[in-house]
Amino acid sequence: MNQIEAALQGKITPEMEMISRTERVSVETIQQGVRAGRIVIPKNNRREVRKPCAIGAGLRTKVNANLGTSPDDCDENKELRKLKAAMEAGADAVMDLSTGGDLRRIRRAIIGECYVPLGSVPIYECASDAMRAGRHTSDLSGDEILGAVELHARDGVDFVTVHCGVTFSVMEQARKLSRVTDVVSRGGAILLEWMHANGRENPLYERFDDLLDISRKYDLTLSLGDGMRPGCLADANDAAQFGELLVIGELVRRARAAGVQAMVEGPGHVPLHLVEANVTIEKSTCDGAPFYVLGPLVTDVAPGYDHIVGAIGGALAAAKGADFLCYVTASEHLRLPSEEDVWEGVMASRIAAHAADIAKGLPGAADWDRDMSTARCALAWEKELSLAMDPERAKSFRASSPPRDPEFCTMCSEFCAMKKSAPVFRTKS
Amino acid sequence: MNQIEAALQGKITPEMEMISRTERVSVETIQQGVRAGRIVIPKNNRREVRKPCAIGAGLRTKVNANLGTSPDDCDENKELRKLKAAMEAGADAVMDLSTGGDLRRIRRAIIGECYVPLGSVPIYECASDAMRAGRHTSDLSGDEILGAVELHARDGVDFVTVHCGVTFSVMEQARKLSRVTDVVSRGGAILLEWMHANGRENPLYERFDDLLDISRKYDLTLSLGDGMRPGCLADANDAAQFGELLVIGELVRRARAAGVQAMVEGPGHVPLHLVEANVTIEKSTCDGAPFYVLGPLVTDVAPGYDHIVGAIGGALAAAKGADFLCYVTASEHLRLPSEEDVWEGVMASRIAAHAADIAKGLPGAADWDRDMSTARCALAWEKELSLAMDPERAKSFRASSPPRDPEFCTMCSEFCAMKKSAPVFRTKS
What we know:
CATH class of the largest domain in chain A: Alpha Beta
Number of strands of chain A: 10
CATH superfamily of the largest domain in chain A: Radical SAM ThiC family, central domain
Strand content of chain A: 5-15%
CATH architecture of the largest domain in chain A: Alpha-Beta Barrel
Structural class of chain A: alpha/beta
Low-confidence stretches of chain A: none
Oligomer: homodimer
Order of helices and strands of chain A: HHHEEEHEHEHHEHHHHEHEHEHEHHHHH
Number of domains of chain A: 2
CATH topology of the largest domain in chain A: TIM Barrel
Strand order of the largest sheet of chain A: 3-4-5-6-7-8-9-10
Helix content of chain A: 40-55%
Largest sheet of chain A: 8 strands, parallel, barrel
């Protein structure tokens, strides 16, 4: 039984049960959230997900890691290593965004090893097929585009990005603007090119009911992609972005009415002072649907460090209510990410998510920090290192610079402030 | 002539002149800010500073990098390499926090090569001298503590951290609290231990007028240190922290009345939702004095990644009005930072500072981002790479993964959204 169907009938699915144990919320809270559409549980009903998760209001902020080949860098084994790195680093979900090589084989290999929810962007596959066959992507038929979604669902994908909100009218509005970076969404660009060439409506919008039928069949969660997301600070929060968001809000309501789980994708590149507005406007226009942001990146000028740029934006977005952070890696804007980029990217986003969970006042979120700090003040190094978000990294840093006295570290040695001040505070007068 | 003296007499110093050219503000704005104490120009009147800077209201957010040996890791050449790395990475100021080796020699070597404002914490030196001589730091005399400040000023240090606000009464208040990490400021801990052992007032508070005399003599900027800064999220924004801040506010007013430049140091470890309060309370209780924050770190659990944790807190603090960000490196809580840590730490803080400057609406701050994005959309790779905050990093990432077609990168290859959507947007119908 699909998650939303169960929730509507007052039933508890095994996933709701598992998730309530890891989230410190009651199973009823999750059930009610799924029923109202404020929580999604991305899980294909034909696939086992060993570590499922729920995304949305009142829950821990989740982190997604993007994987996948490109025509220029296409190594299935490397992608499997990146998958392993992402899951071990603690990603709550991953997306296979492959566009190079045998997409079906790569996806199936990833699904075989992926124990967290897996997302994909099906239009990449029919676009890739068309390009290899020497066809233009604008010659794709609506059936081919919808067919790619069904193929992914049948393979077991748990959530798909579908750029249904890039309508013909959104495109016409956007063309009147003078954007600095036009469009930076690959799926969005393919569909805009298609509409522009054919003079017809976006098939994913026009045939949204067919998409809902496929989704219901597999309990596929729709991640309503933002084809018009800003690709630079100068384009942030413009009429094209919010015009598309209003369409997405309409589609969220249609999905809910059809018993299909839906979340909403957000930007992108957004200056710090405009981040909060993105969250509040998404929540109000999309009736509280889970919000899945990419970064956001709070400056355009730091390629090579975009995991940090994205962590700043992500922390603020999540603190204000975003539910799901898509990581950005250090390689963004420069190359396909490496395995190391994946690891660091997941860590940066987990830091942002955790900092936000504390700010959101999530019950118990700050306990981890208190335990760490108690160990730190007691100079209980083993406990401190094992409590680190990345214990191996913490241990290797310490091991690389051994102090003479193991009570201290080489930063302060016997100048350790906690050690020196202990007699003042620990022996009360 | 000292900066504040010149400002009061309506004169323009060479530093004000230089700084107004790099800041895009009028020299009168800087002069008025210095006069009012809302801007400081840390520059010892006995030293040349090739790249001076001003810190405070209406100016670009500045970044400081901490350097210095410890008794466990004491290599003068390594510290000089770290100094070079910090300045080349773009730090606006550096602090020598050495506590190991021949402190005088190391400081003088650093001063000799340092072309940005240099700060220090003089109490480390008399504490180190005492400990080597087998004395307890609580046996230091007030003259020795003040003498260390004068020694640093005579050597040419531009600003000093002095923990004058940790008064006996602040200590007594703090002892009634149940802090998780007591005190994490080394200077603060030395003074608390001193007061506790001697049952007497903090000499840096008691003899603040003497400190002002030394400062005026050398135009030494006082950085009023927060000995009671929280060392973990659980201790943030508590009565000890704010009790000390109120004392610091009083000292800011005394410094201004005495013609001495002063700024205020802030935390430390602060959860995201409490960061803004730190800035607004500092600005109101310290009459708009420049605010110099350490991080802040928005979670305690990510040792090995604290440069990222600090960039999140720093971006938010600066966006809300903090003026000066002290970097935190990936090695924080684990070891003395390496040269690479210094580089990455400066970059992370510069990202935070720049993102905040855009959010603050600083004139021209977003131009860099617009230029970068224009180059990006034009696929003008050379320009894009040269505009990067760290061009070498960006170039090496791209070079490590060469695309078949140099127009693209290996992330998207021919799926490049900007390329695909250009015909839709660049040929208006």
